[in-house]
Amino acid sequence: MSRRRSPSDRAPSQLDVARLAGVSSQTVSRVMSGQSNVRPETARRVLAAVETLGYRVHAAAASLASGRTRILGVIVLSTDRYSTGATSVGIERVAAENGYTVTTASVANHASLDAIVQAFDRLERQGAEGIILAPTVALESPEMRTRTARTPSTHLVRVGPEDDADFAVDQRLVARLAVEHLLDLGHRTVWHVAGDEYWSEAGQRRETWETVLLERGITPAPVLPADWTSESGYRAGRTIAAIPDATAVFVSSDEMAFGVIRALHEAGRAVPDDVSAVSVDDIALAAYASPALTTVRQPFEAVGMAAARRVIGEIEGAEPAGDLPPIEPELIIRASTAPPL
Fold first, then answer.
1. Residue ranges in 151-217 assigned as alpha helix (H)
2. Which of 3, 23, 283, 318 has the most CB within a 10 Å radius?
3. Among the CATH numbers 3.90.550.10, 4.10.320.10, 3.40.50.970, 3.40.50.2300, which is that of 71-168+300-316?
4. What's the CA gap between 134 and 73, in Å, rounded?
């Protein structure tokens, strides 16, 4: 049973800080909110008192006083894909650098546009001052346009020409890097294990795979459909293993590539001696696969940082704090690709 808190146990208040620092409560508020109209020596006294007392600003009380919540909302698909977590790290980093907290609204994988609109509404009701739309699907509708017009927001991916996500990774370049790498090694054609077509990036990569082959005068083989999971990659890998003249495969994610390689190994087809494999993402395990995976690295954290900077900049009307790393896909060549024997 917990004991009753005595008055001496209560958390320190803004008034306690003001008394210890010898200033007004309003001055404490100005210092804690980062306003510049406080003399440096006064600010130092206030911050010293804050440290001594262990005072912490109550977010709800601060928002009532300032009329600001400093909440950044993020809509994500409910999935265990690596990209979701890695992108969130970048969003959280920029938010923290600029004094924002992040609130997430999840929608089911394959969610309807209406479900995403409802998630937008939930975040607005929770006080989000800006919203990042992470689902890699087309979000163009009158309902969504109404919401993005009233609340600062951005889309993490470029699905169509109307999207403003100029920081998004060019998925067509991702696929071109992968397919041209295999063709330049001397492979006569490249098979493709595609991702879930609900995700726009899967379609963009598939279309570019076809385009690159046609540019080289090669008729594309049938696409092997999958759903981003290692299990679906394994099933596709068994199909490839049964095609004697298949020597190269472009797999649309690292997780699926692990399944493909496992299936080829079980069928007695060595990677890369018999079949070269290149994939996408460069997740942490890619370098430690057997063989180490050749893959196109996507800078997920940098994309999250760029999206957060754009929305916070729109909210604040000024360039937010923090530097932005480059946002370009990069082919990482390891041991899973080689010239055909």
1. 171-184, 200-215
2. 283
3. 3.40.50.2300
4. 10
Rounded CA separation 201/79 (Å) = 15
What digits encode the pLDDT tens for the residues 4-19?
434 455 678 888 888 9
Whether the per-residue pLDDT at 313 is higher than 60: the answer is: yes
Helix (H, G, I), strand (E, B) or coil at 84: helix
E strand map for the chain: 71-78, 101-108, 128-133, 153-155, 191-194, 224-225, 248-251, 276-281, 294-297, 330-332
Note the pLDDT tens digit of each residue in 54-70. 877 655 556 555 668 89
Q: Which fold has domain 13-66?
A: 434 Repressor (Amino-terminal Domain) (1.10.260)
Helical residues (DSSP H) of 6-39, grouped into ranges: 14-21, 25-32
Q: Give CA separation, 71 vs 76, 274, 281, 306, in Å.
A: 16, 52, 29, 17
Question: Distance of CA 82 to CAs 87, 195, 304, Å?
Answer: 9, 14, 13
Per-residue pLDDT, averaged over 147-169, amounts to: 76
Q: What is the rounded average pLDDT for all residues in the chain?
A: 88
Per-residue tokens: 193: 């294990």
Q: Do 252 and 81 touch, CB atoms closer than 8 A?
A: no
User: Which residue carries 């017009």 as its tokens?
Assistant: 149
**For domain 171-297, which architecture applies?**
3-Layer(aba) Sandwich (3.40)
